[in-house]
Amino acid sequence: MNPTTTFSQLxxxxxxxxxxxxxxxxxxxxxxxxxxxxxxxxxxxTSLEGxxxxxxxxxxKGDIHIWQNNEExxxxxxxxGMLSMLKxxxxxxxxxxxxxxxxxxxxxxxxxxxxxxxxxxxVLKKYMGSSINKDMIxxxxxxxxxxxxxxxxxxxxxxxxxxxxxxxxxxxxxAQQMGFNLDDISKATNSDWLLAFSDFKMxxxxxxxxxxxxxxxEGNGFRMPEFKYIISVGIGDKSSLQKIINAVAKMGSQTxxxxxxxxxxxxxxxxxxxxxxFANQYLSGSNNxxxxxxxxxxxxxxxxxxIHQFLSGLSSMPVNDQNEKDFLDKSLNTWKxxxxxxxxxxxxxxxxxxxxxxxxLQTNALKQLNNYMDEIYKISEARxxxxxxxxxxxxxxxPSDTVRPK
Length: 406
Prior knowledge:
Layout: H1 7-10, H2 19-22, H3 25-40, H4 52-59, E1 64-69, H5 70-76, H6 89-92, E2 96-104, E3 107-115, H7 118-127, H8 134-138, E4 145-152, H9 156-164, H10 168-178, H11 182-188, E5 189-210, E6 213-215, E7 222-235, H12 238-255, E8 263-265, E9 269-273, H13 276-284, H14 293-296, E10 301-305, H15 307-315, H16 322-332, E11 335-346, E12 349-358, H17 365-395
Protein backbone atom coordinates (compact mmCIF):
# COMPACT_ATOMS: atom_id res chain seq x y z
CA MET A 1 0.00 0.00 0.00
CA ASN A 2 1.25 3.47 -0.92
CA PRO A 3 1.75 5.81 2.09
CA THR A 4 -0.66 8.28 0.47
CA THR A 5 -3.43 5.74 -0.12
CA THR A 6 -6.70 7.21 1.07
CA PHE A 7 -9.52 5.64 3.04
CA SER A 8 -11.85 6.01 0.03
CA GLN A 9 -9.42 4.00 -2.11
CA LEU A 10 -9.43 1.17 0.41
CA UNK A 11 -13.18 1.22 0.88
CA UNK A 12 -14.76 1.51 -2.59
CA UNK A 13 -18.33 2.78 -2.60
CA UNK A 14 -20.89 1.64 -5.15
CA UNK A 15 -22.68 4.88 -6.05
CA UNK A 16 -24.73 3.34 -8.87
CA UNK A 17 -26.94 1.52 -6.41
CA UNK A 18 -27.41 2.53 -2.80
CA UNK A 19 -26.36 -0.92 -1.68
CA UNK A 20 -24.10 0.28 1.12
CA UNK A 21 -26.89 2.36 2.52
CA UNK A 22 -28.91 -0.81 3.02
CA UNK A 23 -26.00 -3.00 4.11
CA UNK A 24 -26.27 -4.57 7.50
CA UNK A 25 -24.00 -3.38 10.30
CA UNK A 26 -22.30 -6.77 10.24
CA UNK A 27 -21.35 -6.41 6.55
CA UNK A 28 -19.81 -2.98 7.07
CA UNK A 29 -17.99 -4.12 10.19
CA UNK A 30 -16.26 -6.91 8.28
CA UNK A 31 -15.04 -4.49 5.63
CA UNK A 32 -13.82 -1.99 8.22
CA UNK A 33 -12.07 -4.78 10.12
CA UNK A 34 -10.25 -5.79 6.95
CA UNK A 35 -9.11 -2.19 6.45
CA UNK A 36 -7.84 -2.00 10.03
CA UNK A 37 -5.95 -5.29 9.66
CA UNK A 38 -4.31 -3.94 6.51
CA UNK A 39 -3.30 -0.71 8.20
CA UNK A 40 -1.85 -2.39 11.29
CA UNK A 41 0.10 -4.91 9.21
CA UNK A 42 1.85 -2.34 7.04
CA UNK A 43 5.59 -2.77 6.80
CA UNK A 44 7.83 0.24 7.44
CA UNK A 45 8.56 0.60 3.73
CA THR A 46 4.90 1.10 2.89
CA SER A 47 3.90 3.38 5.78
CA LEU A 48 4.74 6.86 7.00
CA GLU A 49 7.26 5.38 9.42
CA GLY A 50 9.91 5.72 6.73
CA UNK A 51 9.02 9.34 6.00
CA UNK A 52 11.77 11.56 7.47
CA UNK A 53 9.60 14.55 8.41
CA UNK A 54 7.00 12.26 10.00
CA UNK A 55 9.48 10.28 12.08
CA UNK A 56 11.15 13.54 13.21
CA UNK A 57 7.73 14.92 14.16
CA UNK A 58 7.01 11.99 16.48
CA UNK A 59 10.21 12.74 18.41
CA UNK A 60 9.07 16.30 19.18
CA LYS A 61 7.55 16.95 22.62
CA GLY A 62 3.99 18.25 22.49
CA ASP A 63 0.30 17.59 23.03
CA ILE A 64 -0.74 17.58 19.36
CA HIS A 65 1.27 16.49 16.31
CA ILE A 66 0.24 17.44 12.74
CA TRP A 67 1.81 16.22 9.49
CA GLN A 68 0.63 17.95 6.29
CA ASN A 69 1.61 16.87 2.77
CA ASN A 70 1.12 20.06 0.73
CA GLU A 71 2.39 18.41 -2.45
CA GLU A 72 -0.52 15.94 -2.46
CA UNK A 73 -3.01 18.66 -1.48
CA UNK A 74 -1.89 20.84 -4.40
CA UNK A 75 -2.05 17.89 -6.82
CA UNK A 76 -5.65 17.19 -5.85
CA UNK A 77 -6.67 20.87 -6.08
CA UNK A 78 -8.56 22.15 -9.14
CA UNK A 79 -6.73 23.95 -11.93
CA UNK A 80 -5.13 27.22 -10.82
CA GLY A 81 -5.65 29.03 -14.14
CA MET A 82 -2.75 31.34 -15.01
CA LEU A 83 -0.59 29.81 -12.27
CA SER A 84 -0.63 26.49 -14.15
CA MET A 85 1.50 28.17 -16.83
CA LEU A 86 4.32 28.73 -14.36
CA LYS A 87 7.02 26.20 -13.54
CA UNK A 88 6.15 25.60 -9.90
CA UNK A 89 7.55 22.09 -9.40
CA UNK A 90 10.38 23.37 -7.24
CA UNK A 91 7.84 25.07 -4.94
CA UNK A 92 5.39 22.17 -4.63
CA UNK A 93 7.58 19.04 -4.75
CA UNK A 94 8.39 17.48 -1.35
CA UNK A 95 6.50 20.33 0.32
CA UNK A 96 5.59 19.10 3.80
CA UNK A 97 4.69 21.02 6.97
CA UNK A 98 4.75 19.57 10.47
CA UNK A 99 3.39 21.15 13.65
CA UNK A 100 3.93 20.30 17.31
CA UNK A 101 1.45 22.04 19.59
CA UNK A 102 1.79 22.31 23.35
CA UNK A 103 -0.59 23.90 25.88
CA UNK A 104 1.13 25.69 28.76
CA UNK A 105 -0.09 28.16 31.36
CA UNK A 106 -1.06 31.33 29.53
CA UNK A 107 0.17 30.34 26.08
CA UNK A 108 0.06 27.87 23.19
CA UNK A 109 3.50 26.83 21.91
CA UNK A 110 3.71 25.79 18.25
CA UNK A 111 6.86 24.35 16.70
CA UNK A 112 6.78 24.22 12.91
CA UNK A 113 9.10 22.58 10.39
CA UNK A 114 8.84 23.40 6.68
CA UNK A 115 10.31 20.90 4.21
CA UNK A 116 10.72 21.88 0.56
CA UNK A 117 12.39 20.57 -2.61
CA UNK A 118 16.17 20.49 -2.90
CA UNK A 119 16.15 23.28 -5.53
CA UNK A 120 14.10 25.64 -3.37
CA UNK A 121 15.95 24.61 -0.23
CA UNK A 122 19.34 25.40 -1.82
CA VAL A 123 18.17 28.93 -2.76
CA LEU A 124 16.67 29.68 0.64
CA LYS A 125 19.70 28.34 2.54
CA LYS A 126 22.08 30.40 0.41
CA TYR A 127 20.24 33.71 0.66
CA MET A 128 18.48 33.53 4.04
CA GLY A 129 20.18 35.96 6.41
CA SER A 130 21.36 35.37 9.93
CA SER A 131 19.45 37.81 12.12
CA ILE A 132 16.81 40.54 11.88
CA ASN A 133 18.12 44.10 12.17
CA LYS A 134 16.65 45.06 15.56
CA ASP A 135 17.50 48.75 15.07
CA MET A 136 14.95 48.94 12.24
CA ILE A 137 12.27 47.91 14.74
CA UNK A 138 13.50 50.23 17.50
CA UNK A 139 13.35 53.16 15.06
CA UNK A 140 9.55 52.89 14.72
CA UNK A 141 8.34 56.23 16.16
CA UNK A 142 5.53 54.74 18.25
CA UNK A 143 5.23 52.58 21.35
CA UNK A 144 1.85 51.24 20.16
CA UNK A 145 3.00 48.79 17.49
CA UNK A 146 0.33 46.16 16.79
CA UNK A 147 1.79 44.37 13.77
CA UNK A 148 5.28 43.59 12.45
CA UNK A 149 6.83 41.43 9.76
CA UNK A 150 10.65 41.63 9.79
CA UNK A 151 12.99 39.73 7.51
CA UNK A 152 16.69 39.30 6.86
CA UNK A 153 16.97 37.92 3.32
CA UNK A 154 19.53 38.75 0.64
CA UNK A 155 17.83 40.40 -2.38
CA UNK A 156 19.78 38.22 -4.81
CA UNK A 157 17.53 35.42 -3.59
CA UNK A 158 14.44 37.02 -5.16
CA UNK A 159 16.11 36.84 -8.56
CA UNK A 160 16.89 33.14 -8.04
CA UNK A 161 13.31 32.44 -6.92
CA UNK A 162 12.02 34.06 -10.13
CA UNK A 163 14.39 31.84 -12.10
CA UNK A 164 12.87 28.75 -10.49
CA UNK A 165 9.47 29.71 -11.95
CA UNK A 166 10.99 29.88 -15.45
CA UNK A 167 9.70 33.44 -15.94
CA UNK A 168 12.97 35.33 -15.44
CA UNK A 169 13.20 36.20 -19.16
CA UNK A 170 9.65 37.54 -19.27
CA UNK A 171 10.03 39.47 -16.01
CA UNK A 172 13.35 40.96 -17.13
CA UNK A 173 11.85 42.05 -20.46
CA UNK A 174 8.95 43.80 -18.72
CA ALA A 175 11.29 45.37 -16.14
CA GLN A 176 13.52 46.78 -18.88
CA GLN A 177 10.50 48.46 -20.46
CA MET A 178 9.95 50.14 -17.08
CA GLY A 179 13.59 51.28 -16.84
CA PHE A 180 15.32 48.63 -14.68
CA ASN A 181 16.25 44.94 -14.74
CA LEU A 182 16.58 41.89 -12.48
CA ASP A 183 20.14 42.85 -11.57
CA ASP A 184 18.83 46.16 -10.22
CA ILE A 185 16.44 44.20 -7.97
CA SER A 186 19.40 42.21 -6.65
CA LYS A 187 21.52 45.30 -5.98
CA ALA A 188 18.98 47.90 -4.87
CA THR A 189 18.59 46.82 -1.26
CA ASN A 190 20.54 44.99 1.39
CA SER A 191 19.16 42.15 3.49
CA ASP A 192 16.95 44.16 5.89
CA TRP A 193 13.17 44.31 5.35
CA LEU A 194 10.42 45.64 7.62
CA LEU A 195 6.66 46.10 7.51
CA ALA A 196 5.12 47.62 10.66
CA PHE A 197 1.69 48.89 11.78
CA SER A 198 0.98 51.04 14.82
CA ASP A 199 -1.53 53.25 16.66
CA PHE A 200 -4.71 51.44 15.70
CA LYS A 201 -7.93 53.22 16.65
CA MET A 202 -11.40 53.90 15.37
CA UNK A 203 -11.39 57.33 13.76
CA UNK A 204 -13.90 60.15 13.86
CA UNK A 205 -14.89 59.74 10.21
CA UNK A 206 -17.78 57.37 9.79
CA UNK A 207 -19.28 55.34 6.99
CA UNK A 208 -22.74 53.94 6.54
CA UNK A 209 -24.54 52.30 3.68
CA UNK A 210 -27.55 53.68 1.83
CA UNK A 211 -29.22 51.59 -0.87
CA UNK A 212 -26.25 49.25 -0.87
CA UNK A 213 -23.74 52.05 -1.49
CA UNK A 214 -21.21 53.61 0.90
CA UNK A 215 -22.50 56.94 2.19
CA UNK A 216 -21.06 59.10 4.98
CA UNK A 217 -23.06 62.24 4.30
CA GLU A 218 -24.72 62.17 7.72
CA GLY A 219 -21.64 60.96 9.58
CA ASN A 220 -23.43 58.53 11.87
CA GLY A 221 -22.52 55.19 10.37
CA PHE A 222 -19.60 52.81 10.91
CA ARG A 223 -16.50 54.59 12.19
CA MET A 224 -13.52 53.96 9.93
CA PRO A 225 -10.33 52.50 11.46
CA GLU A 226 -7.12 54.52 11.48
CA PHE A 227 -3.52 53.34 11.83
CA LYS A 228 0.03 54.24 10.87
CA TYR A 229 2.42 52.08 8.85
CA ILE A 230 6.05 51.90 7.80
CA ILE A 231 7.57 49.91 4.93
CA SER A 232 11.35 50.01 5.18
CA VAL A 233 14.37 48.40 3.51
CA GLY A 234 18.10 48.86 3.87
CA ILE A 235 19.73 50.47 0.84
CA GLY A 236 22.27 48.56 -1.22
CA ASP A 237 22.96 50.35 -4.51
CA LYS A 238 21.21 53.74 -4.47
CA SER A 239 21.11 54.20 -8.27
CA SER A 240 19.47 50.80 -8.78
CA LEU A 241 16.94 51.59 -6.06
CA GLN A 242 16.14 54.95 -7.70
CA LYS A 243 15.38 53.17 -11.00
CA ILE A 244 12.83 50.96 -9.24
CA ILE A 245 11.31 53.95 -7.40
CA ASN A 246 10.89 55.81 -10.69
CA ALA A 247 9.28 52.77 -12.33
CA VAL A 248 6.78 52.28 -9.50
CA ALA A 249 5.97 56.01 -9.49
CA LYS A 250 5.40 55.87 -13.26
CA MET A 251 2.97 52.97 -12.91
CA GLY A 252 1.20 54.82 -10.11
CA SER A 253 0.79 57.98 -12.18
CA GLN A 254 -0.95 55.95 -14.88
CA THR A 255 -3.56 54.79 -12.38
CA UNK A 256 -3.81 58.10 -10.55
CA UNK A 257 -2.47 56.63 -7.30
CA UNK A 258 1.24 57.09 -6.65
CA UNK A 259 2.43 54.60 -3.97
CA UNK A 260 5.72 56.50 -3.76
CA UNK A 261 4.11 59.77 -2.68
CA UNK A 262 5.22 59.36 0.94
CA UNK A 263 8.70 57.88 0.56
CA UNK A 264 11.87 59.24 2.13
CA UNK A 265 15.44 57.94 2.29
CA UNK A 266 18.94 58.70 3.45
CA UNK A 267 22.23 56.95 2.68
CA UNK A 268 21.29 53.78 4.56
CA UNK A 269 17.51 53.41 4.71
CA UNK A 270 14.48 53.74 2.46
CA UNK A 271 11.04 54.14 4.06
CA UNK A 272 7.42 54.69 3.04
CA UNK A 273 4.88 55.78 5.63
CA UNK A 274 1.20 56.62 5.70
CA UNK A 275 2.48 60.21 5.88
CA UNK A 276 5.79 61.83 4.96
CA UNK A 277 6.17 63.17 8.51
CA PHE A 278 5.81 59.69 10.02
CA ALA A 279 8.38 58.31 7.55
CA ASN A 280 10.78 61.17 8.42
CA GLN A 281 10.35 60.44 12.13
CA TYR A 282 11.32 56.85 11.39
CA LEU A 283 14.49 57.92 9.56
CA SER A 284 15.39 60.29 12.40
CA GLY A 285 15.61 57.26 14.66
CA SER A 286 14.15 56.28 17.99
CA ASN A 287 15.15 53.84 20.66
CA ASN A 288 11.86 52.13 21.46
CA UNK A 289 12.13 48.81 23.26
CA UNK A 290 9.50 46.15 22.58
CA UNK A 291 9.07 42.92 24.53
CA UNK A 292 9.05 40.76 21.40
CA UNK A 293 12.43 42.02 20.11
CA UNK A 294 14.32 39.56 22.30
CA UNK A 295 12.39 36.69 20.74
CA UNK A 296 13.34 37.95 17.27
CA UNK A 297 17.04 38.10 18.17
CA UNK A 298 19.20 35.70 16.19
CA UNK A 299 16.42 34.74 13.74
CA UNK A 300 16.06 35.78 10.07
CA UNK A 301 12.24 35.95 10.23
CA UNK A 302 10.00 37.60 12.84
CA UNK A 303 6.25 38.19 13.06
CA UNK A 304 4.18 39.92 15.75
CA UNK A 305 0.54 40.90 16.08
CA UNK A 306 -0.99 42.51 19.18
CA ILE A 307 -4.53 41.08 19.23
CA HIS A 308 -5.38 42.85 22.47
CA GLN A 309 -4.51 46.31 21.11
CA PHE A 310 -6.53 45.64 17.96
CA LEU A 311 -9.58 44.51 19.95
CA SER A 312 -9.19 47.49 22.32
CA GLY A 313 -9.45 49.80 19.32
CA LEU A 314 -12.62 48.06 18.16
CA SER A 315 -14.11 48.22 21.67
CA SER A 316 -14.11 52.04 21.51
CA MET A 317 -16.97 51.84 19.01
CA PRO A 318 -20.52 52.13 20.38
CA VAL A 319 -22.24 48.75 20.05
CA ASN A 320 -26.01 48.46 20.14
CA ASP A 321 -26.16 44.66 20.01
CA GLN A 322 -25.48 43.13 23.45
CA ASN A 323 -24.34 39.84 21.86
CA GLU A 324 -21.68 41.67 19.84
CA LYS A 325 -20.53 43.49 22.97
CA ASP A 326 -20.33 40.19 24.89
CA PHE A 327 -18.31 38.62 22.07
CA LEU A 328 -15.87 41.55 21.97
CA ASP A 329 -15.51 41.65 25.77
CA LYS A 330 -14.84 37.92 25.97
CA SER A 331 -12.24 38.11 23.19
CA LEU A 332 -10.61 41.17 24.76
CA ASN A 333 -10.26 39.37 28.09
CA THR A 334 -8.84 36.23 26.45
CA TRP A 335 -6.33 37.06 23.70
CA LYS A 336 -3.07 38.97 24.11
CA UNK A 337 -0.71 38.54 21.14
CA UNK A 338 1.02 36.21 18.66
CA UNK A 339 4.81 36.12 18.34
CA UNK A 340 6.60 33.99 15.73
CA UNK A 341 10.25 33.71 14.77
CA UNK A 342 12.60 31.34 12.97
CA UNK A 343 13.74 30.60 9.43
CA UNK A 344 16.89 28.64 10.32
CA UNK A 345 17.68 25.49 8.33
CA UNK A 346 18.06 22.43 10.56
CA UNK A 347 17.52 18.68 10.04
CA UNK A 348 16.59 19.16 6.36
CA UNK A 349 13.87 21.71 7.13
CA UNK A 350 13.29 25.34 8.05
CA UNK A 351 12.28 25.76 11.68
CA UNK A 352 9.85 28.27 13.17
CA UNK A 353 8.40 28.82 16.63
CA UNK A 354 5.11 30.55 17.44
CA UNK A 355 3.57 31.62 20.74
CA UNK A 356 -0.12 32.45 21.06
CA UNK A 357 -0.33 34.32 24.35
CA UNK A 358 -3.39 34.78 26.58
CA UNK A 359 -4.23 37.61 28.97
CA UNK A 360 -4.51 35.12 31.85
CA LEU A 361 -0.99 33.79 32.43
CA GLN A 362 -1.90 31.44 35.28
CA THR A 363 -4.46 29.11 33.65
CA ASN A 364 -3.63 26.36 31.18
CA ALA A 365 -4.19 27.49 27.57
CA LEU A 366 -6.28 24.45 26.64
CA LYS A 367 -8.67 25.12 29.51
CA GLN A 368 -8.90 28.79 28.49
CA LEU A 369 -9.49 27.86 24.87
CA ASN A 370 -12.23 25.41 25.81
CA ASN A 371 -13.90 28.03 28.02
CA TYR A 372 -13.65 30.64 25.26
CA MET A 373 -15.28 28.34 22.69
CA ASP A 374 -18.09 27.53 25.16
CA GLU A 375 -18.79 31.21 25.74
CA ILE A 376 -18.70 32.03 22.03
CA TYR A 377 -21.14 29.19 21.35
CA LYS A 378 -23.55 30.57 23.99
CA ILE A 379 -23.31 34.04 22.45
CA SER A 380 -23.94 32.57 18.99
CA GLU A 381 -27.01 30.69 20.23
CA ALA A 382 -28.34 33.81 21.95
CA ARG A 383 -27.91 35.78 18.74
CA UNK A 384 -29.69 33.03 16.79
CA UNK A 385 -32.63 33.05 19.21
CA UNK A 386 -32.80 36.84 19.00
CA UNK A 387 -32.92 36.66 15.19
CA UNK A 388 -35.65 33.99 15.31
CA UNK A 389 -37.76 36.17 17.61
CA UNK A 390 -37.45 39.11 15.22
CA UNK A 391 -38.41 36.88 12.30
CA UNK A 392 -41.41 35.47 14.19
CA UNK A 393 -42.63 38.97 15.01
CA UNK A 394 -42.48 39.89 11.33
CA UNK A 395 -44.35 36.76 10.25
CA UNK A 396 -47.07 36.97 12.91
CA UNK A 397 -50.12 38.82 11.48
CA UNK A 398 -51.42 41.77 13.53
CA PRO A 399 -54.66 41.22 15.50
CA SER A 400 -57.82 42.07 13.57
CA ASP A 401 -60.33 44.58 15.05
CA THR A 402 -63.14 43.54 12.74
CA VAL A 403 -65.57 40.79 13.69
CA ARG A 404 -66.67 38.47 10.95
CA PRO A 405 -70.41 37.95 10.55
CA LYS A 406 -71.62 34.51 11.55
